[in-house]
């Protein structure tokens, strides 16, 4: 974000002294603030929130009500209701709000979306999206449903739901079916655990269907399996990670048994979502109605969780 020249890091705040030190290495001219309240008293234009999920909505609303634009790590809220409250606060304050749904900003997904939306694939009636991670989060709060709001669906599935609806231009979801597992067993609601494997199927208002799968600590044979494939009557388009890693992606057009490249690495996509928010903020952008889409994604996650 700093490389764009659109923003200056004025201050950082973190309850961990070690993390504060690391942050100040990246922004040596920034001040160290003792708390969020101290940050908000500094008259900032914008605030980047990268705290545990249970704090996102409350902290975002506090900032927005003080007239401070917000860029938040996903998820914006643990539930649709929390997400709606933040979006309503942004609208009321007329302040820019964005969430780090970073895969939208990869060249590969942008090219795939172009193929779907242009009609080049014919009627696109189905999609399969996957995010399997051979590891799990290294912070304890991810495994506490009260703090995280959920497991791999909240952490990884949010990207899949967002990419599917964004690619199809948010057609509306008429039905949701899902199965959640923890340590290989069906997840028991209210059992104090979060899911580490999930599958879901979404019925779209235009008659299409989306199938999702995500997991932590899966025996994947590599670090990660990430793919978003869209199937049309005249062709398909897919986005996938390369070498089983998290950073290099390719996209391709598929027709019958043939494949045609759409995008290949290198693609420095990391930080583009934040950079776009900063650039918009620098030119005075206010509330963007597209933030309403965040509520739609959160609503689908609620339905996957059966809430």
Structure write-up:
- It is globular, with a radius of gyration of 20 Å.
- The chain has two domains: 127 residues, NAD(P)-binding Rossmann-like Domain (Rossmann fold, 3-Layer(aba) Sandwich), CATH 3.40.50; 166 residues, Dihydrodipicolinate Reductase, domain 2 (2-Layer Sandwich).
- The longest helix has 16 residues.
- It is of the alpha/beta class.
- Helix content is 32%, strand content 26%.
- Strand 12 and strand 13 form a beta hairpin.
Task: Provide a concise account of the structure shown.
This protein has 307 residues and is an alpha/beta fold. 32% of the residues lie in helices and 26% in strands. The chain has two domains: 2-100 and 271-298, NAD(P)-binding Rossmann-like Domain (Rossmann fold, 3-Layer(aba) Sandwich); 102-267, Dihydrodipicolinate Reductase, domain 2, CATH 3.30.360.10.
Indicate the mean pLDDT: 96
Distance between the termini: 36 Å
Report strand order across the widest sheet.
8-7-9-10-6-11-12-13-14
Q: Can you count the beta strands? A: 14
């Amino acid at each position: 974000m700093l490389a764009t020249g659109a923003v200056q890091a004025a201050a950082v705040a973190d309850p961990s002294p070690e993390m504060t030190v690391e942050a100040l290495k990246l922004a040596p001219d920034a001040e160290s603030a003792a708390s969020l309240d101290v940050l908000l008293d500094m008259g900032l234009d914008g605030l980047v929130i990268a705290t545990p999920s249970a704090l996102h909505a409350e902290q975002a609303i506090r900032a927005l009500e003080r007239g401070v634009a917000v860029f938040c790590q996903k998820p914006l809220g643990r539930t649709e209701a929390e997400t709606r409250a933040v979006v309503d606060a942004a609208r009321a304050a007329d302040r820019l709000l964005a969430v780090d749904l970073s895969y939208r900003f990869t060249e590969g997904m942008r090219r795939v979306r172009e193929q779907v939306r242009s009609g080049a694939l014919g009627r696109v009636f189905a999609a399969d999206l996957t995010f399997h991670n051979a590891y799990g989060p290294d912070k304890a709060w991810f495994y506490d449903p009260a703090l995280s709001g959920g497991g791999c669906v909240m952490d990884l599935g949010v990207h899949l739901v967002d990419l599917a609806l964004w690619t199809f231009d948010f057609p509306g979801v008429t039905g949701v079916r899902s199965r959640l597992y923890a340590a290989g067993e069906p997840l028991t609601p209210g059992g104090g655990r979060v899911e580490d494997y999930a599958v879901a199927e979404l019925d779209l208002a235009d008659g299409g269907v989306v199938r999702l799968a995500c997991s932590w600590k899966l025996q994947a044979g590599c670090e990660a399996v990430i793919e978003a494939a869209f199937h049309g009557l005249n062709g398909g388009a897919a986005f996938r990670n390369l070498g089983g890693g998290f950073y290099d992606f390719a996209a391709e057009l598929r027709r019958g048994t043939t494949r045609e490249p759409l995008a290949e690495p290198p693609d420095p996509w990391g930080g583009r979502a934040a950079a776009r928010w900063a650039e918009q903020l620098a030119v005075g952008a206010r509330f963007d109605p597209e933030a309403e889409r965040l509520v739609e994604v959160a609503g689908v996650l609620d339905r996957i969780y059966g809430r």
